[in-house]
Amino acid sequence: MAIAEVTVIPIGTGSTSLSSYVAELQRVLEKQEGIKFTLTSMSTIIEGTLDDVFAAIRAIHEAPFESGAGRVSTSIKIDDRRDKASSSEQKIQSVREKL
């Protein structure tokens, strides 16, 4: 299972507010199959197979262009653990157990 932290920044929107773009990205993710996602204050966490995660990232990278953005900068950080099952919740729980 891959876990990706993704930040999509539309550029050339004419406004410093991006919440409408973020909301649209969340709607796009709701339509993606095979993933789980969580919005945070600074990014979105996407979990699933590597293929499904990449498909979701491509969809949210394209969405701002469809909404009129002239440029899009997307940052991606991926944790792809294959030696055992992993999830965002499992990673957080592991730290909590050690506290």
From TrEMBL:
Chain spans, region Disordered: 68-99
GO annotation, cellular component aspect: cytosol
Domain Thiamine-binding protein: 4-96
SUPFAM superfamilies: MTH1187/YkoF-like (SSF89957)
Gene3D superfamilies linked: 3.30.70.930
Database matches in InterPro entries: MTH1187/YkoF-like, Thiamine_BP, UPF0045_domain
Biased composition annotated in UniProt, kind: Basic and acidic residues: 77-86
Superkingdom of this protein's organism: Bacteria
Entry similarity comment: Belongs to the UPF0045 family.
NCBIfam families in the cross-refs: MTH1187 family thiamine-binding protein
Protein name: MTH1187 family thiamine-binding protein
Protein's organism: Paenibacillus oralis
